[in-house]
Amino acid sequence: MTDQADRRAGAQSQASPQATPVWRDPRTRAIIWQVLVLGGVIALGVYLVHNTLANLEARSIRTGFGFMDHEAGFAIGESPLVDYTAADSYGKAFVVGLLNTLRVSLIGIVLATIIGVIMGVARLSSNWLVAKLASVYVEVMRNIPVLLQLFFWYGAISYLLPAVRQALQLMPGVFLSKSGLRFAVPVADPVHPWMGLAFLAAIGGCVLYYRWSKRRQAQTGVEPRLGLPLAGFLIGLPALVWLIGGAPTAMDVPELTTFRYQGGTSVSPEFLALLLGLTFYTAGFLAEIVRAGILAVPHGQTEAASALGLRRRQVLRLVLLPQALRIIVPPTTNQYLNLTKNSSLAVAIGYPDLVSVANTSLNQTGQAIECISIMMACYLTISLTISFFMNWYNKRIALVER
Amino acid sequence: MRNFKLLAAAAVTAAGVAGVAAAPTAQAGEVMDSVMENGTLRCGVNTGLAGFSIADDQGNWTGLDVEYCRAVAAAVLGDPEAVQFVELSAQQRFTALQAGEIDILSRNTTWTLTRDVSLGIHFAGVTFYDGQGFMVPADLGVDSAKDLSGASVCVQSGTTTELNLADYFRAQGMDFEPVVFEGFEESLSAFFAGRCQVYTTDKSGLAAIKSVDAPDPDAYKILPETISKEPLGPSVARGDDEWFAVAKWVLFALIQAEESGVNSENVDEMMDSDNPTIKRMLGQSGDMGEKLGLDPKWAYRAIKMVGNYGEIYARNVGPETPLGLERGVNDLWTEGGLMYAPPIR
């Protein structure tokens, strides 16, 4: 053993006499090249920034981010999460824009995932009609540019729905018109935050119950009922808190004033159009990803599961989807990123997202470079966060090989 | 951590690239030379606003802003057709001027302190005194802007309009719902579709929209209130004072010509006039052209080939046009208006 090691070391020292010049060592060379390239890139960046600043100075164009504290002076159509008025700063206006982008992106991602999974599974259905309808959906959605789809939805809302004074009453307290969807909400009450806490507690309870049921199934082979107890937790606990809190029933019902409904809460037509467009468009791609993922699981798995006596629904839920998920997750990340970035098309239909607010600020201040950098930094951060989360999830569900 | 550093470097590089796209290399003081050398004037105009700058189906540009550029081209290059019109959105206009993509910006742009001081541009004067107003459907039953509390208002982004709107409603203690579009067309079609009860822009713009774009002009009405001052005028990039002077004095010559009774039809006869002001303006005496770095006939050509301010106004926005705007504050100072040219001497 020692002999062999000695011989190997000897062979190595013979093959490379100690006088090997540094530039002929591939490892050193690789490092030198990388340092050079990196240095070049950094130097280029520094040059560009310096050149830009010098040019701006020469043209006496103001630079810097000082304007972020100044009064913005423009109003923003919707800011449901923070209280914004025209007297607030540019910085706050950007926050409102960013939150609007995040709001439509997050809701869009959730809805697109649900529709995508349904359509993807439907395309594989043995029912001819269901499969064909899903195919038509996928082909139509995937092959029309998303901007046109946004115009379509916005046009549909603007032209098909009645004016606000003739709003459709879908059910008591819910009105649909060109001005969007407006509905009654409960009047704010001290008990509401407690109900929120109760709901969170209920989710915790659900997780515990689910784990317990898995253990019990493993021990006894009997699968405890899931649906009813979970729903009971989620609805029952907040309802109980509500009853203890005196069961407040006052509702803030929208009422028609001269121009619009006031009171209650509303979803603007711009938001609706953007959400519908992004969701249906992205769901088309997700459907194909889900279908491909399921088809990639060998058919033998289905046959084996059926042979074990699992019902079709169980085969899908317990055997196919968990394996398909590993194939589905990476391309899905791309679609989530696309949806988020496509939300910047909102400017075309008047939804006050980040791009819309940044464009307005850019015009009012004339500081194009600053506003565009902020926009880029925001989208970069959002995209990297989504990627990071999806990569973490991907690792978690990856096949653990032993 | 290492990843983060890489990201920071990438972000800085990206920002630098964006910066360069917005502001390429400088060419201070050279605008005049490059216009002379190229033989064309690059003029930034609105993508389509009736009366100010609009192209017909043959691609011929007309409008007040357009004719100002033609007058400059006639004075500098001797040919009113030697203009290349560059269509710009509200967002693009200042960047295009700063970056030297256009020689002059004539795009119904309001002269404000911020724009004058911090954008690296100079306003050459005022071609049209405007003010912001509101347009509503006639059947809305509203007669005053003071009754608009709670209304939703369609507006184009990137304009002083957006700020005036917020200011006005704040000052009046009323609330409103802004619906802001980047594109002019989108904002208009949303208004006509009934998404908003109110459309707001400069009153000249409202007149143009009502007469040209509205499906039925009688179905809309413009409210009497004027909520802002909007002096619209051309601007040039800083760094070429000679060019700035030319931009100013061509405009003043057009106004002075109207005041002196010189127009495109009688300008040849006026060459023999004994009036010293007219003689200096038309290059029959003095060295006004030389002082501007032009030849003596600069103003003669602008008046002959394009017309004086009054003719330009009447042709594009005056009472005889679809816009039907009376002169009002845009009349000469001698007629009680604001149009006043410093002496050409």
Regions with little confidence, pLDDT below 50 for 5+ residues of chain B: 1-28
Q: Give start-end ranges of low-pLDDT stretches of chain A.
A: none
Approximately how much beta-strand content do the residues of chain A carry?
5-15%
| Separation of the first and last Cα atoms of chain B | 69 Å
Helix content of chain B: 40-55%
Number of strands of chain B: 13
Mass-distribution shape of chain B:
globular
N-end to C-end Cα span of chain A: 30 Å
Estimate the global geometry of chain A from the Cα principal axes.
Answer: globular
SS elements, strand count of chain A: 8
Structural class of chain A: mainly alpha
- Reading the helices and strands of chain A in chain order gives HHHHHEEEEHHEEEEHHHHH
InterPro entries (chain B): Bact_solute-bind_prot3, Solute-binding_3/MltF_N
Protein name (chain B): Amino acid ABC transporter substrate-binding protein
Signal peptide (chain B): 1-28
Domain Solute-binding protein family 3/N-terminal (chain B): 40-270
